[in-house]
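Per-residue structure
===
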Amino acid sequence: MAKDKLFVEKELSWLSFNERVLQEAADKTVPVVERVRFLGIFSNNQDEFFRVRVADVRRRALLEKEQNEEHAAKLLVSIQEKVISLATKFDAIYKEVVRELSKHKIYFVDHSQLSQFHKSWLIDFFQQQVVKHVRPLIPSKTRKLIDLIEDNTTYLAVQMTSGEHTDYAVVEVPTNEVSRFILLPPEKSKVKKEVILLDDVLLLNLASIFRGFFQFDEISAYSFKMTRDAEYYVEDEIDQSLVEQMSESLKQRFSADPTRVVYDREMPAAMLKFLKKHLQISDNNEGLLPGGKYRNFKDFIGFPNFGRKYLENPSLPALTNSQFSSFDSAFEAIRHKDILLYYPYHSFDHFTELVRQAAFDPAVTHIRLNIYRVAKNSRIIHSLIDAVKNGKNVHVVVELKARFDEENNIEWSRVMTDAGIRVSFGIPTLKIHSKLCLIHRKEGDNLSRYAHLGTGNFHEKTAKIYTDFSLFTCHPEITREVENVFDFIEYSYKRYKFYHLMVSPINTRLSITQMIDQEIQNARAGKSTGICVKVNNLVDEPIIHKLYEASQAGVKIRLIIRGMCSLVPDIKGVSDNIKIISIVDRFLEHPRVMIFDNAGDKKVYISSADWMTRNIEHRIEVTCPIYDEKLKQRIVDIFELQFKDTTKARIIDAEQKNDYVARGNRKKLRSQVETYNYIKKLEDNYIP
């Protein structure tokens, strides 16, 4: 069978995922303020898509052109068609959501709809709060606009005309200093909430910004946004530290080629010509896209609720783990038996508390942790600094190349180094994406190890909105192998064998392949079989081929894939036994889970790794077995709840239609809510 029938292009599959996000914005059963926020999530996702994935396809197209190939070029055309289609849907949904907000007495107004009272108030507001942050840019023949503006920032292109003479300028909408959403003071009714965007505040005061510096009879402005290629190259300078190399390399992003320019479709032709010239974009560039009046909807992720509480999701308070709270210390709780947490249903405070206790516990001697993404003000790192003050040996492995978190990680590396923490940067050729923490503790005459292995980052903020598993264990073999992972990161030239953990790039592919092969053998022998997998992305072709093989052998395969999925289910004679769903809801589905039936003796794993070639072969990733029978069953139960979702689950099929799973005669089931209820019941009924 032809390859294009067996595999979906991952970039088109990714756009299909983001369409599912857009479906949430369109869903009238979703509280209207949350719908606004989903528009922001969609927009932010599209930005990253162009910065990373489209940029990569464009580079491939340039390489293929030299070899007289055009696969990537055709893919760019397909991408543009889908992007334009989604943009049209986005504009329609935005208008619908704005109308829905008005039904709840929340109104968006622009600068042309203001009363004299609000005009006067906004002019004063602009002078007091905004003008100090306004920094006009004046392009010229020697100062090209492409060298002056930043990536993914909203700008107003300004045109000033005086007779036959025209001047152009650019003004950034300063959303980092002032809220994008300005609530106007009540003029008559206190019930009516009128909201104006910061963009319109600038438009209202546009003339005052430039008056006295330019002569003009008319002045107008239209929004635009540019997205650059996010790739960068680290120069191997022998006299530079890795931090210095990374800092220099990140500067490349400020001068990288644009992959997309989105502009107000009402922009005059002369202004658009000016933009294209100064941004070095041709008329036939696939990244030149017209849009609505407002650009950079990513700010809508934080859209405030100006109305009643029911306009956003009801809170689901993070649950306290009963085992942790039943003991005097986190170490006693873990020593009692393994603990499995599921964020954000469980509180992330349990992990931060473990590190805090380790920082002052006299019995703790060493703490090792690896960082991919952490919060801007990380309590975890502050506890590690306290640990050094208390005489602990602290070693942190920082991944400097965590995309879009590089600057944050560089800064934390400097802070930790200055505090006396031993900071290392792992293996230059392998990103370190595992989520590990290891603590050494003297207990009598013995040295005990306590470990955390998880599917998500040590990030207090994202732990409130991403679903992720965390295992806390003092299992001797697992914790010893966690130590071996840290040693491998430090001494990659040594060979380590892992009998419990799967560690990329050492044994993950082989282990997954062997377990799928075992299911194939069991199916052919008439034994119980089944494979259940939940990952963010499934695009690795060898694994997909192996799943096709298992399906043809009669193995029932159920997959929950949040994002990209190149596997095509329900191909007659190839993937008849494969069913795939995707869940998009209030929390971002982020855990990686594998469940192999194993002739009735289930093998259950949690992992930091998606089923992508990069995660299996080009990163340090850790997949951990769950040995406690109750915890195994908990993961199985949660997977089953999610696969029974009749509210937020979509079917992944060859056409990428994103149809919702049909409910039929089944009861309405929203898996994220039911998962919360399931975990709450477990905690309420905990018996030590």
